[in-house]
Amino acid sequence: MDHKKTVVITGASRGIGKATVEVFAQKGYNVLINFNNSEKEAIAIYNNLKAKKFSVKLFKADVSNRDEVDAMMKFCVNEFGAIDILVNNAGISQEKLFTDITDEDWDRMQNINLKSVFICTQEVLKHMIPEKKGKIINISSIWGMVGASCEVHYSTAKAGVIGLTKALAKELGPSNIQVNCVAPGIIETDMLSSFDQEQLDILKENTPLMRLGSPLDIAMCIFFLASLHADFITGQTISPNGGFVI
């Protein structure tokens, strides 16, 4: 690397976000760990990596709030000098019959899973466009590709992330900024906490590789897209899903 690169990872306190923080830190990047509600988990990750002398900073921000996101990006630039990579990972899930989804359920899902990508990306581009370089990696889901019963609001938001990725890649190409999307399959995180063992076994059986994904599987895909090996990849949706969706 010509200089130590900096990555901002949203929703970084648990699951895929946590694994992604650990991968980038271990690979020698400056990492800004964003969290909102999971303060205890975020502090634990930060303290663990700091004790190992990795270059990490912690920042609490609601990624659907523009003022808080603006403050986070400015903090990152002040601390590390630049932002080279943004990983829009923050998200929530909810299972509910479509006819039971309330306006509040809908708005919260779109705000955290889709509007946050809009806001974080707009704010980071203030720092990336003048530099004529950068990588933005948005985390969607297989359900954004094919839809999930009883998760219509989630599937809608995640499909929106894919559409945003494609359109923005075309717009930012002349600025040498790559925008890509990772759409994970069934991953062993606490988003699966409502599933019993029988349901998990069925999901495994429906996956050609006969296992669920790990957060590290997704983190390594994100890291690849952030690396110089992916400099000619933009506007793409890569789905590490074990063959669950082909």
Describe this structure in words.
This protein has 246 residues and is α/β, with parallel strands linked by helices. It has a single domain (6-238), classed as Rossmann fold. Helices cover 46% and strands 13% of the residues. The chain has 8 helices and 7 strands. It has helices spanning 15-26, 39-51, 66-80, 103-128, 142-146, 152-172, 197-205, 215-226, and strands at residues 6-9, 30-35, 56-60, 85-88, 134-139, 177-182, 237-238. It has a 7-stranded parallel sheet, sandwiched between helices. α1 (15-26) packs across α8, α3 packs parallel to α4 and α4 runs parallel beside α6 (152-172). The model has no long low-confidence stretch (mean pLDDT 97).
How much helicity do the residues have? 40-55%
Give the averaged pLDDT, no decimals: 97
User: What is the rounded distance between the termini?
Assistant: 35 Å
Q: How many beta-strand runs? A: 7
CATH superfamily: NAD(P)-binding Rossmann-like Domain
Order of SSEs: EHEHEHEHEHHEHHE
Q: Structural class, please?
A: alpha/beta
Percent of sequence in beta strands: 5-15%
Low confidence ranges: none
Which CATH-level-2 architecture? 3-Layer(aba) Sandwich
